[in-house]
């Protein structure tokens, strides 16, 4: 097997892995009933966009679809950061409600361990980074026709 075949298979593996992470995120969001507010629907939308961009790149690995994939994944990373922020703010609000006279440091430390997991939104960023990695030195982005 030559190096081009190895790289093609590795790219395929990374894209499928990223799509599975997005799909797993949707399942987790449904199971945790993450649908109460409009903001809670953002990860569903980002996961759907991520899966759609990955499918487009798998079906037609051309320069335009790979650039679109990268742009969608940047959007997913930004949305993931928004999710971390939202979870932190919600945890701080809950801690302040429970312990209104607590120090800032203790509220912040408890918020890091709070009810809304801070790293859960990061799962979308990981999937996006994996998908971007699959496009690293992709022949279609370098002007070559082979993928």
User: How much helicity do the residues have?
Assistant: over 70%
- Give the helix tally: 5
**Unreliable stretches, pLDDT < 50, 5 or more residues?**
none
Helix/strand/pairing class, anyone?
A: mainly alpha
Order of helices and strands: HHHHH
Please tally the β strands and state the result: 0
How does the overall form come out from the CA principal axes? elongated
Q: Round the Cα radius of gyration to an integer and report it.
A: 19 Å
Q: Give the overall average pLDDT.
A: 93
Distance between the termini: 15 Å
Mind describing the biggest β-sheet?
none
Key words describing this protein structure:
147 residues; mainly alpha
Quickly describe the structure.
By secondary structure, the protein is an all-alpha fold. The chain is 71% helix and 0% strand. The two termini are 15 Å apart.
Secondary structure blueprint with pairings:
Blueprint: H1 3-31, H2 42-59, H3 63-98, H4 104-112, H5 122-134
Descriptive account of the structure:
The protein has 147 residues and is mostly helical. The chain is 71% helix and 0% strand. Helix 1 runs antiparallel to helix 2, helix 1 packs antiparallel against helix 5 and helix 3 packs antiparallel against helix 5. The longest helix is centred in the middle third of the chain and has 36 residues, at 63-98. The relative contact order is 0.16.
């Amino acid at each position: 097997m030559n190096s081009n075949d190895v790289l093609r298979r590795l790219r395929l593996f990374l894209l499928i892995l990223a799509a599975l992470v997005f799909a797993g995120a949707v399942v987790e969001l449904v199971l945790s009933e993450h649908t109460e507010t409009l903001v809670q629907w953002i990860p569903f939308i980002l996961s759907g966009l991520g899966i759609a961009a990955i499918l487009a790149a798998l079906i037609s690995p051309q320069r335009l679809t790979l650039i679109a994939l990268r742009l969608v994944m940047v959007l997913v990373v930004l949305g993931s950061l928004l999710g971390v922020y939202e979870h932190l703010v919600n945890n701080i609000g809950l801690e302040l409600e429970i312990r209104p006279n607590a120090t800032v440091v203790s509220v912040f430390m408890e918020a890091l361990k709070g009810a809304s997991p801070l790293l859960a939104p990061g799962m979308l960023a990981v999937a996006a980074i994996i998908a971007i990695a699959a496009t690293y030195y992709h022949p279609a982005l370098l002007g070559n026709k082979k993928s």
